[in-house]
């Protein structure tokens, strides 16, 4: 029986992180809109957030390879908690301080259930502690399911906005404070997580082995194309619902809540259904793009919300399989650097949120139409790039098992 490595505390951490971070991620575009900022300016803020997080992720990846991935996780969590606390006390008249607080909070990326799951060091920690492909899929699947289900707490906080007594801006600040408490609890839970450091070769001098670099380059290529599409469409999605359908905060919160329920279901199904991880990862990525395009074409809030909910189910199922593919061809001592390089490329590509904000001012459906197309294309490229690698490694693994 394999060692647990304090996995339950990692689950607890993702629960608290998801509740706190998801609320900030969904509500911050609406908060900036309430303060009078334009979609373009809000998109530029998110681009800055993404850029900072990308650099931080790479730095913590190098640190994790040398000092341990648990430390990377804890540092990232501490910075996020600090950022959200600053958001509470920052004067609404200071755009520079508001931007700085959001940059530190770590809200980069999408407001999907996966947002509460990943932080620098997580993928590398899972890969280090558990060696078998399906075991990794199972662990990531459980974490994804719990994170997505817990994200409901963050979206439900948005639905309570209209019932709080502090005024529109005061209500946001009060809930930002509650979010910061959840992030502090997440940080505390990580203290009890263990890391397998006995069987891992600790990196001394080299940045990365050539074989790992070759494999991770393919991941970066395919992920970057999809990430440009995601950056255009997802970070400002709550703002898009508000502008396109004139949806209220409560209605937006309800849509995101159901999305997280189905994302959690999809992640849970990934732990139960064993199949070709590459095909599953590629197909679900293609469908993520198709659902975005369907949302853009919908004349009704209800129908667009339904498409987003189904996209959550699809994304939840695909994420654990995609994570397993992304680390399959990487040497163990390179897990931290490789996952951070992947994250760096993805996050820099998601700086396209500024383009998304600009496109909203031209024609509201455009960010989702273009973003969905790019994500679908990335799924096709993903399958073509990794088909040979995954098949060869699976055959080699089966041969070693027989021997």
UniProtKB/TrEMBL annotation:
Lipid biosynthesis as UniProt keyword: no
Annotated TM spans: 15-34, 40-63, 75-97, 103-128, 140-160, 172-194, 215-240, 252-270, 290-310
Superkingdom field: Archaea
GO MF entries: transmembrane transporter activity
Gene3D superfamilies on file: MFS general substrate transporter like domains
Keyword Membrane recorded: yes
Keywords: Membrane, Transmembrane, Transmembrane helix
This protein's name: MFS transporter
Organism expressing this protein natively: Acidianus ambivalens
Source organism phylogeny: Archaea, Thermoproteota, Thermoprotei, Sulfolobales, Sulfolobaceae
């Amino acid at each position: 029986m394999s060692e647990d490595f304090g996995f339950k505390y990692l689950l607890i951490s993702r629960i608290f992180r998801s509740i706190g971070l998801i609320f900030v991620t969904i509500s911050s575009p609406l908060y900036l809109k309430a303060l009078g900022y334009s979609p373009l300016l809000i998109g530029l803020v998110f681009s800055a957030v993404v850029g900072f997080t990308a650099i931080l992720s790479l730095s913590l990846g190098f640190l994790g390879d040398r000092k341990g991935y648990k430390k990377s996780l804890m540092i990232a969590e501490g910075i996020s908690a600090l950022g959200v606390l600053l958001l509470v006390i920052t004067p609404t008249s200071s755009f520079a301080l508001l931007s700085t607080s959001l940059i530190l909070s770590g809200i980069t990326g999408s407001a999907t259930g996966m947002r509460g799951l990943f932080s620098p060091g997580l993928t590398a920690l899972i890969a280090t502690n558990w060696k078998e492909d399906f075991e990794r899929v199972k662990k990531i699947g459980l974490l994804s399911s719990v994170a997505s289900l817990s994200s409901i707490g963050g979206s439900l906080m948005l639905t309570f906005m209209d019932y709080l007594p502090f005024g529109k801006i005061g209500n946001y600040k009060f809930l930002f404070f509650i979010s910061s408490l959840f992030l502090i609890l997440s940080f505390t839970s990580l203290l009890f997580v263990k890391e397998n450091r006995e069987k891992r070769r600790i990196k001394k001098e080299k940045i990365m082995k050539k074989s790992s670099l070759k494999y991770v380059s393919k991941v970066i290529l395919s992920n970057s194309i999809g990430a440009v599409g995601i950056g255009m469409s997802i970070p400002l999605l709550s703002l898009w619902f508000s502008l396109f359908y004139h949806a209220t905060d409560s209605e937006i919160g309800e849509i995101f809540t159901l999305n997280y329920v189905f994302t959690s279901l999809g992640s849970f199904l990934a732990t139960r259904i064993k199949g070709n991880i590459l095909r599953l990862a590629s197909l679900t990525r293609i469908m993520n793009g198709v659902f975005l395009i369907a949302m853009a074409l919908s004349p009704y809030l209800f129908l667009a919300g339904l498409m987003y909910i189904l996209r959550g189910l699809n994304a939840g199922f695909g994420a654990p399989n995609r994570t397993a593919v992304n680390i399959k061809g990487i040497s163990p001592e390179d897990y931290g650097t490789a996952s951070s390089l992947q994250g760096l490329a993805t996050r820099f590509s998601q700086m396209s949120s500024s383009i998304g904000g600009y496109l909203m001012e031209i024609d509201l459906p455009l960010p989702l139409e273009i973003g969905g197309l790019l994500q679908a294309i990335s799924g096709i490229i993903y399958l073509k790039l990794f088909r040979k690698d995954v098949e060869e490694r699976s055959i080699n693994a089966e041969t070693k098992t027989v021997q």
